[in-house]
Amino acid sequence: MHDILTEPEHETGASLFRDGVRDIMPLLLSVVPFALITGVAATGAGIEPAPAIMMSLLVFAGAAQLVAYQLMSAGTPILVILIATFFVNLRMALYSLSLARIFRGRSLWLRAWMGHLITDHAFVLTAKRFERRPAGSKGYRYYLGTAIPMLLVWMIFYTAGVFAGAWVPPSWSLEFAIPLTFMVLLFAGLSRWPMVAAAVSGGTVAVCAQALPYNLGLIAGTIAGIAGGVIADRRRKKS
Amino acid sequence: MSNTEIWTLIFFMAVITFGLRSGFMLFSEKLRLPPWMDHALQFVPSAVLAALVAPAFFTPGGRMLLPHQNPFLLAGMFAGFVAWRTRSILWTLAAGMPALWLLQFLTT
Questions:
Q1: CB of A180 closer than 8 Å to CB of B76
Q2: Is the ipTM of this complex over 0.90?
Q3: Is the alpha carbon torsion for A98, A99, A105, A106 positive or negative?
Q4: Taking the model in full, what pTM does it have?
Q5: What is the 3-state secondary structure (H, E, C) of B79-95?
Q6: Cβ distance A230 to A215 under 8 Å?
Q7: Residue A58 burial (CB < 10 Å; 0-12/13-18/19+)?
Q8: Under an 8 A CB cutoff, do A111 and B26 touch?
Q9: Angstrom distance (rounded) from CA A151 to CA A57
Q10: Looking at chain B from residue 67 to 96, which residues have their Cβ under 8 Å from any Cβ of chain A?
């Protein structure tokens, strides 16, 4: 039997990097409209191009940025936007726990940088690649092969969106593209019934709590949604 | 929001996000979440996304509108159908945005 537990000799750092680039390519196409919309939304929220571009480099989390722009447009205070950022990016902590195995042994700087570049796409591909085989000491090169093209494509089209945003008149209601985009992401995640329960309870509470000050309805909806999912999952396991 | 406020927001969003992404890897390579938290976290994306989408459709601009007077809800439902069938951001936007413009044109 072929022993898959030893480090594959034929895999060099460069070939792993190329594999990563090859695997991320088809996914990059879906990043383009998302990056454009997020850039347009940044301008729509009243942010100047320089801070908008810096924000994308420093935060580098599309969904959280889009949430921040939507909340900024609604006049939400900074503290509530930060709580929302925490919730929206919480999944990154899970990704990071899972990827730590592959990054192990790298320098502190490299690990910090690789952590900063974590995205849904790069995580999913890297986790899948090393699901059944060991990552070896060069496994992080595959991750970088997926993460660096993501960073480049994201920044290019986000920046294009930031400048295009200034040319779009408000009467086009372009901010409506934000919930539409989120809806596609939402549907993609509804793989099991407890997820549907989480979405229904989260959405219902968020609408009912709409009148709460500081846009706290979003936080109330999120907590209610998590509770709804946990309860539905427990019910299902009992029956 | 003033420029100072925007830079404050950027700084803290970056700190929070970096902490979530790199915190575990930098300060502890062995840390594991308690199982109940690990279990609850899987519902965060569905909960947050639904809590963002639903008010944008049902209470645009912070007011509850009747369905036939609310172009955002009608366009959102149509786009929702397309999103469900195609799972594509491009198709969903291509359906939802023109639907909104048409409905806004008809109701004003």
A1: yes
A2: no
A3: negative
A4: 0.76
A5: HHHHHHHHCCHHHHHHH
A6: no
A7: middle
A8: yes
A9: 9
A10: 72, 75-76, 79-80, 83-84, 87-90, 92-93, 96
